[in-house]
Amino acid sequence: VRKEEMEKMTAYMDTLTKPQGSLGRLEELAVKLAGIQGKPDVSRPAVLVFAGDHGVTAEGVSLYGKEVTQLMVHNFVQGGAAINVLAEEIGASVTVTDVGVAGDTLFGSVDAKVKQGTGNIAREAAMTTGEASLAIDAGIEASERAIAQGANLIIPGEMGIGNTTATSALLAAWTGASPEEVTGSGTGVTGEQLQLKQEVIGMALERASWESTLEAFAEIGGLEIAAMSGAMIEAAKNRTPVLIDGFIASIAAMGAVRLAPFTADYFIFGHLSAEAGHKLALETLKAEPLLELKMRLGEGTGAAAAYPLVSMAAAIADRMATFADLGIKQ
Amino acid sequence: VRKEEMEKMTAYMDTLTKPQGSLGRLEELAVKLAGIQGKPDVSRPAVLVFAGDHGVTAEGVSLYGKEVTQLMVHNFVQGGAAINVLAEEIGASVTVTDVGVAGDTLFGSVDAKVKQGTGNIAREAAMTTGEASLAIDAGIEASERAIAQGANLIIPGEMGIGNTTATSALLAAWTGASPEEVTGSGTGVTGEQLQLKQEVIGMALERASWESTLEAFAEIGGLEIAAMSGAMIEAAKNRTPVLIDGFIASIAAMGAVRLAPFTADYFIFGHLSAEAGHKLALETLKAEPLLELKMRLGEGTGAAAAYPLVSMAAAIADRMATFADLGIKQ
Fold first, then answer.
1. Do residues A59 and A95 make contact, with C-beta atoms less than 8 angstroms apart?
2. Domain that includes residue B199, residue range
3. Would the N or C end of chain A have less CB density within 10 A of its end CB?
4. Does some domain include residue A324?
5. Which residues of A are less than 8 Å from B315 in CB distance?
6. What is the distance between the alpha carbons of residues A305 and A267, in angstroms, rounded to a whole number?
7. pLDDT tens-digit map of B70-117
8. Nearest to B71 among A292, A309, A328 (CB)
9. Which positions 249-308 of B are in contact with A (Cβ < 8 Å)?
10. What is the pLDDT of residues B225-246, one digit of tens each?
């Protein structure tokens, strides 16, 4: 990122018709955008939803069956999901990329299917490292296409029944935290089922071994999680800000930073999720999200909810009067 | 508010294609709007900025001189202030009402001037109770006009150099808190000047006596604060949600609730301000704001920043697919 642009924007903020610093985090956002983009412009946000299935659902870790992933892809394509409604509110395009849904690739989604869902990570590897690379590539290509079409802010989202299990396992793998510390209720599991989920995550961590980040993705998985990491890296490479959603997106961000450390400078964190483990993930990433609204849906919804604040920051940098405009000497 | 509509919306939220409760506070907002409006619709937000001067600036409680109030009204009318930029972002109209700016009423603002600024509350009453009534009426009329023109959500904002001093004094008057507990840095006073501000607030509280809420407004003042209370009451009377900005708007909300307790049900709190005293005000009002972005500007900016979340809540209630739409039995 460009330090001089950040310094220029910091100084410019103090010339605007308001007490110094009185727009708080909106000013910080304007400075961050200046570092990334030069002139802040996030007028064409693109939501990239990646979908994949998880073999670990066979262990009973989720309230919903695997088939719901495909049904939700159908819902995204039809425009009826929460992320569609919020994307419409913020004027964002929505692209759905199938990186590993069990079943046919639905019309209206991008076919980048690596395999028919991951292996059951409690008992086997999620995928090969070759497959993990392909999933990351699918994310890279999705960002590349969106940016080529004019997108100037990327919101990676996901859908995959069972994916909080894989996400929690990745968080434990990358931080050394225990299954208890990283496991939350996902779509709503409680009591004995939550305990089972912790045990399953423990089994996966015991079974698997990895050295590289790519090997961790392969062992513990998440085709759609790896794809999100790829989308983030490609956006950063193109000096495009990435608005990070909740728990799963934050772990994908962690993966992206492990693979390409420079990406961290391009992240804006949208929402502190109600999912256990997200706080730990954000602390590890030294991130302070803009919102805390008890959302825990994923799909990119928490990031979409935060988007208007990013847009407002850019607008302030662009359109407010200065004290000089009002004829006031500072 | 209509309890049956709230219960219906609560049940409806659980039929939408998402895990139950997973949209967190957006769902709570949808239920709140249903209680207020029946079918949630906040598509035509109106920002009502009230401006007035404060005689207490003679004590040196503010970083800026009194003349800045008029200059900022000029800025609002020209469209260059922070609230203009944020209002444009959210598609809101902006109306500026002069209830007591020292000087001529500027072209482009509504002339409802009660007097040329308040008295110096450290040494005299801010205004008479008759003048306080006129200020409240100005707010009532501003809301009435906006709603007649189609507004379906009201954002009251303010401008008045010195008005955090009056606001802190009102908060102390209505909660029994000490000057130290309610006094913050306003536009940026620190050190000795902050201590002076506390002393001035202490002088006002010692000098003044009041029984009714109207008398408190008259003694301690804020023509624009009283006007905001009026705007809130009129909006509530018309079953129109009111999005509350930061510290000053919250004290106006407190005044409105004291004058007309039913108004409390129509409030949505936008932003926890960095101004000391706001937390106490929100606790007293049992309010939980949507955002916390270290903003401390006023004008309605914190509420405008929160508006997209309210709009998203209405959109979710209106446009998301249900499980039945996807052919899933619940």
1. no
2. 45-309
3. C
4. no
5. 85-86, 88-89
6. 16
7. 999 999 999 999 999 999 999 999 999 999 999 999 999 999 999 999
8. A328
9. 274, 290-297, 301, 304-305, 308
10. 999 999 999 999 999 999 999 9
